[in-house]
Amino acid sequence: MGAEGQQGGQWADVTPDAARRLVTAAVEAFAERGYHATTTRDIAGRAGMSPAALYIHYKTKEELLYRISSVGHRLALDILRRARDSAGSPADRLSEAVRSFVRWHAEHHTTARVVQYELGALGEEHYAEVVALRRDTDAAVRAIVEDGVASGDFGTPDVPGTTLAVLSLCIDVARWFNAEGKRTPDEVGELYADLALRMVGYAGK
Amino acid sequence: MGAEGQQGGQWADVTPDAARRLVTAAVEAFAERGYHATTTRDIAGRAGMSPAALYIHYKTKEELLYRISSVGHRLALDILRRARDSAGSPADRLSEAVRSFVRWHAEHHTTARVVQYELGALGEEHYAEVVALRRDTDAAVRAIVEDGVASGDFGTPDVPGTTLAVLSLCIDVARWFNAEGKRTPDEVGELYADLALRMVGYAGK
DNA sequence: CACCTCCCTAAGCGCTTGCTCACCTCGGGG
DNA sequence: CCCCGAGGTGAGCAAGCGCTTAGGGAGGTG
């Protein structure tokens, strides 16, 4: 109940009201069944409207997916960049990056699921745009890891590979996280921050 | 080219020949576009047959997915159980489990993609069967981690959580691995075996 | 009051989907 | 020589798809 209600916060600046109801309905439906298995009638129905109303606010079903994907990717990228640019040691910054990135994936796991696993359904141009954002995401984490290796705080033989693995681990939270499970987003974030530090070979504590 | 040709080995015991061609065609199509975006005409076409021929060998499109998912899950489970039951220290066994599990996900990433990411499209009964296999998968890895903690070789505060994370990390290889990329399945397996040992807090070497 | 704009709906178009059915082909046994 | 079953095809059905169109009602403005 209402656990996903906070999701409204993510789409607060989508107007008018009907467009926002449509986008949140689409997130739920895409996350549950996947983009291709979701019908425009289903989305409109969840939003309490007739099928045709969808096309007043969005040109196509794909545009709805693109809006979700674009907003989600930018939100995730901001989280990582904020951590990268924060004060503190590389360990502090990596820990904060993983903690907040994982927390977002768990808290908003419906949105995250669509963002991370449905991008293959995007049109060519939209896909290219999103792939560029994902490269930036990778670069943000790699910058932190490189800082740590340079300062001697981290010890890993393969920086790009380890970066990829850390990101992969975080992203996959969206796949398995269940709101009814026993772990809270905060707990998972804490656990994963610790695991990430071990992965990069952080010795201190 | 032909990197996926080895895939024939996974389906060698599917007879007759036409049924095998259909299942490998379906694996390729499902991995590329996803189950719901793949048409029976596409599968039959890749196998060099008319759309109707599919229904001589399989009752529905869903049964085709089930066959793939079932075989794949059993293969993956066998790999982990063999590692769990092998001789050697917990570190040796965890290392071997992750190495071979990851190698399988990379080498057969098309099959693995279908196995790991399309199970939501299964019918209820088939889904339940596959979920049971996945629980066994988790149990196999957890047994190794518990052994390591009991013997004092590993040091992790959260055994189920760390087990989940290690498995999640391995599974996600199927999502990002690209046969044209610069990493070979062997290299990724080696890197990940090392990362997994760090994650469970393995001190020795 | 007339009028315009913004949302919205009912109906439905053209197409594709998973799947079926009547029929064909062909190698092997009586 | 005929028949038969296994494996295949071409045509096509009912249902559901994304999306369009014609039109209606509510609310603000002259």
Structure characterization notes:
Two copies of one chain form a homodimer. Chain A has 205 residues and is an all-alpha fold. Chain A has a domain at 66-199: Tetracycline Repressor, domain 2, CATH 1.10.357. In chain A, 70% of the residues lie in helices and 0% in strands. Chain A is built from eleven helices and no strands. Chain A has helices at residues 7-10, 17-33, 40-46, 54-57, 61-84, 90-107, 109-117, 124-151, 159-171, 173-176, 185-199. The longest helix of chain A has 28 residues, at 124-151. The first copy, chain A, is elongated and about 60 Å long. The N and C termini of chain A lie far apart (39 Å). Residues 1-6 of chain A have low confidence and may be disordered. Chains A and B meet through helix 9, helix 10 and helix 11 of A and helix 8, helix 9 and helix 10 of B.
Can you describe this structure in just a few lines?
The structure is a homodimer of 205-residue chains. With 205 residues, the first copy, chain A, is an all-alpha fold.
The name of the CATH architecture of the domain at 66-199 in chain A is Orthogonal Bundle
pLDDT averaged over residues of chain A: 93
The count of helical stretches of chain A stands at 11
Assembly type: homodimer
CATH topology of the domain at 66-199 in chain A: Tetracycline Repressor, domain 2
Which strand-content bin applies to the residues of chain A?
under 5%
Q: What name goes with the CATH superfamily of the domain at 66-199 in chain A?
A: Tetracycline Repressor, domain 2
Keywords (chains A, B): DNA-binding
Protein name (chains A, B): TetR family transcriptional regulator
Organism (chains A, B): Streptomyces hiroshimensis
